[in-house]
Amino acid sequence: MTQTLVLIGHGMVGQHFLEVLAERGAFAGEDGPGWHVVVLAEEDRVAYDRVHLSSAFTGTDPDELSLTDAEFLARHGIDLRLGDPAEHIDTAARKVTTVSGTVVDYDALVLATGSYPFVPPIDGADAAGCFTYRTLYDVETLTAYAEEAKTGVVIGGGLLGLEAAGALRTLGLATHVVEFAPRLMPMQVDDGGAAALRATIEGMGVAVHTGVGASSVETDADGRTRALRLSNGETINADLVVFSAGVRPRDRLAREAGIAVGDRGGVVVDEHCRTTDPYIYAIGECAQTADGRVYGLVAPGYQMAETAADALAGEGTKVFNGADTSTKLKLMGADVASFGDPFAQEGKDGAVSVVFSDSRDGVYKKLLLGPDGALLGGILVGDAEAYSSLKPHTGKQLPAPAEAYVGPVTAADIPGADALPDDAVLCSCHNVTKAQVTSAIAAEGITDLGGIKKCTKAGTGCGGCVNTLQAVLDAELSAAGIEKAKGLCEHFELSRSEIYEKIRTEHIRSFTELLEKYGKGEGCTVCKPVVGNVLGTLGPELGLTHILDGEQATLQDSNDLYLANLQKDGTYSVVPRVPGGEITPDALIVIGEVARDYGLYTKITGGQRIDLFGARAEQLPEIWQRLVDAGFESGHAYGKSLRTVKSCIGSKFCRFGQGDSVQLAIDLELRYRGLRAPHKIKGGVSGCLRECAEARGKDIGVIATANGWNLYVCGNGGTTPRHADLLAADLDAAELFRLIDRFLMYYVRTGERLERTSAWLERIDGGLEHLKSVLVEDSLGICAELEAQMERHVAAYQDEWAAVLADPEKLRRFKPFTAAPEGGVSFREDLAAGLEAGRGRVAVLPDGTEAALFKDRSGALYAVGNRDPYSGAAVMANGIMGSRDGVPTIASPMHKQEFDLRTGVSLDDPEVALGAPELP
Question: Strand ranges (DSSP E) for 648-752?
Fold first, then answer.
């Protein structure tokens, strides 16, 4: 029998509830009787991604944030009523009355009304220029008002408050943050973490006021906001005020209907998300769950949606008794993470802490351990790379000293995946444990990452767990005595170093030629970028001049294709080179003007240069034209190449300096710029043994001595920090450069795909002694050859951005494809003529659909939706074409999930699809 289910609210949690019902085949007409669902939505648009709401400030079209489409709703017979929210629930008659007066009968009802922003009861809070930050409507009205504003204040220094502050900076406003608590993000970090976060945010020009509240909003004669008065009597001149001081559950409907609500708000539900009325459920931020809490995060809301769906259309065995509130965020460019119980009291019951703090780089890490060494919780600010290694061990003993996870320690290595407990959650998006992964590997005979994704869904969400999954797979295969194939992928049985040798010795000048000789199929997102990287490295030997020439462009990942780093919202970063960190005032002004004019977020990095974030692909040529005209060149932040050579001030000003570290860093960076390698390369030069440039944490580290320069190699930071080893001491400048030439070219020649120099050194037989033998003693007789190859690289160097700006054909790739058929030519024919084989383009089809268009080597055309279904970013046209088991594929540039180009369906999760619009 068909029954009616009313869903009140169509936000992220409500939409997820509908998707879970769809997965269960619970809608009427799909497999016979089921639920006929009526959705009553307050907003006039379908559910959208509030997590990425801030991307709307940087130009993301609101439609790109949409979480559903008309096809999904029609396929399942969902009656969605936008702009007509529920006004009253009659629990006795089981009827809902909407604002318009419509009455809807129900057999079951789900409340997914979410929460509303809390606005402090202060004078002037309703004045013109006062806003909340919760919906797309808020973004639109705030953006319009900000056009006439110069200064904005955000009330609230929590997660949403700092996100709002970032939005105001994006809009070009001088920004203040006011937080009543004594520190920022009081629910996530402690005093030490908040201090590091505050230093980072204040370094961006945001004024932070803590331990003080808002007293009143002052207005001018026209009633418009002109200032915010604080509780300490201070006044901040402001044209705009954003209230982001927390949220409150939207529980009015339940309260008025006589359904129990918590003392502090939230509809009371049991472990099945059922309210005190047996026909009504509540999920998401409007619910007070069985553990007495109201959860303001999306992930617990999704779990509640799955629980309610199970109760209504399943076995009713799924329960929700609480959720993990561990979080890992990036706020205004700063990594912030907390897990477990980050506020466990030191000394109580024997709890102790291990803390690392580096105020220079805004890094703070704290782990709390129980008396038995069990990890109670932790806080990471400024560097959260260890989060994925630490979180699974919460409540258990760490398999290595805590110092290995938080400090720049080399004596203790962080254990591998085999040390993770079986119940460790590897994929938070789909709640997949290590035990589930290892069981799937054994039961299905899985030997590659794609198999894990297909069997468990792990790795098909945000992609953040892919490295951990690969490590678990490698450990399981090794334990089973199965040798890991050395080949790159299904298309090549050769390793990266073997491919390099084939191309170098046989002068192979294209991917097609290499594929015909040593490969099969069409290539993929693994092998194409590797070959593109090798061709870029050997360009001077092969007569190739630019990575975007001809077929080479089809090999490049999104970063190299646009000569910029892709960000989570689909925009790109702009990173001009600042050799050695030295920059003139005029150059600084140019960067500031560009950032201001294009509304870009700016960040001074640990590599001593300035990154600009938030540029759209079509804006990149305009931005770089201004930078190139001012004398800047590409900083290669997008490539597997030399990034920066960091320096201290050295003998220029420092009274301890024994060498001119700044000039040497400049010389090193200019010599090795543009050199493509198996992985990124970083350098550092310190003017004395005090090591202020942290050179021993770099791939190439140079430290001045009284007798010259010491050369250290193969160091790195990150989750497995390693101090570099001394390769040679007391070198003069000529000796130093000669030895670095040899080192880099030997690494380029023998390193494997995505292998940092630290891992390379540990892999090669003989380690450091082998390097000394080959590079210092010339035991293989190749030093002259390595030096000559580096000289050819230096002589052939050209700025990649300057070359693009001078080439109309390369510039064309930065603009969407626009078809203008003439003389009886069809859209399809015009499209076929305008597309490059193997490379995608964005196009707006005649019916208004934005699609990602592709043409393969045979001339076959494909069209899929341009929006990545996991991140919501419109980036699919920038992905790499290839094949998998004979199926033509496109890989998302965000996290490399692969989709069938013919149907748009994910090869890892068939329930996810891009859509495949028809080409007229």
Answer: 681-686, 700-705, 708-713, 725-731
Phi, psi of 578 (to 5 degrees): -130, 80
- Number of Cβ within 10 Å of residue 97's Cβ equals 14
Q: Over pLDDT 70: what percentage of the chain?
A: 95
Nearest CA to 15 out of 43, 49, 44 is that of 49
**Which runs of E-coded beta strand occur in 158-234?**
174-179, 207-210, 214-219, 225-230
The packing angle between helices 783-796 and 733-750, to 10°, is: 90
Model confidence over 535-571: pLDDT tens digits?
999 999 999 999 999 899 999 988 999 999 998 888 9
Per-residue burial over 667-696, b = 16 or more CB atoms within 10 Å of its CB, e = otherwise: bbbbbbbbbbbbbbbbbbbbbbeeebbbbb
Distance CA 673, CA 578 (A): 11
pLDDT at residue number 902: 93
Give me the mean pLDDT over the 196-211 stretch. Answer: 89
Distance CA 399, CA 417 (A): 11
pLDDT for position 412: 40
Element (H, E) at 403: helix 403-406
Residues 760, 751 contacting (CB under 8 angstroms): yes
| Contact criterion met (CB below 8 Å) for 364 and 185 | no
Q: Residue 380's beta-bridge partner residues?
A: 337, 365
Classified as helix, coil or strand, 426 is strand
Mean pLDDT of the chain: 89
Q: What is the mean pLDDT of residues 463-472?
A: 76
What is the spatial distance between Cα 112 and Cα 287, in angstroms, rounded to a whole number? 8
R_g of the chain computed on alpha carbons = 29
Helix (H) or strand (E) holding 631: none
Residue 879's closest CA among 897, 869, 868, 893? 893
Best CA proximity match to 266, nearest among 159, 41, 111, 161: 111
> Tokens at residue 358, please?
């580096």
Helix boundaries (H) for 460-611: 466-479, 496-506, 511-518, 527-537, 539-542, 552-555, 558-561, 585-598
Query: What is the DSSP annotation of 95-136?
Result: EEEETTS-EEE-SEEEE---EEE-----BTTTSBTEEE-SSH
Do the Cβ atoms of 280 and 109 come closer than 8 Å?
A: yes
pLDDT band at 410 (very low <50, low <70, confident <90, very high): very low
pLDDT at 82: 95
Task: Give the C-alpha distances (Å, rounded to integers) separating 277 from 34, 109, 248, 270, 273.
Answer: 21, 10, 22, 11, 11
Structure-token pair, residue 546: 């630019």
Q: What is the pLDDT of residues 272-291, one digit of tens each?
A: 999 999 999 999 999 999 99
Mean pLDDT value across residues 396-420: 67
- % helix / strand / coil in the chain, to the nearest 5? 30, 25, 45
Would you say the pTM of this structure is higher than 0.90? no
Residue 144 neighbours by CB under 8 Å, 6+ apart: none
Residues 881 and 840 sit within 8 Å (Cβ to Cβ): yes
Q: Give the Å distances, CA to CA, from 481 to 419, 470, 478, 601, 617.
A: 18, 16, 5, 50, 47
- Specify the range with the lowest mean pLDDT, choosing from 69-83, 316-330, 367-381: 316-330
Joined together, the tokens standing for residue 81 give: 């009523």
Neighbours of 92 (CB within 10 A): 9
739/61: higher pLDDT: 739
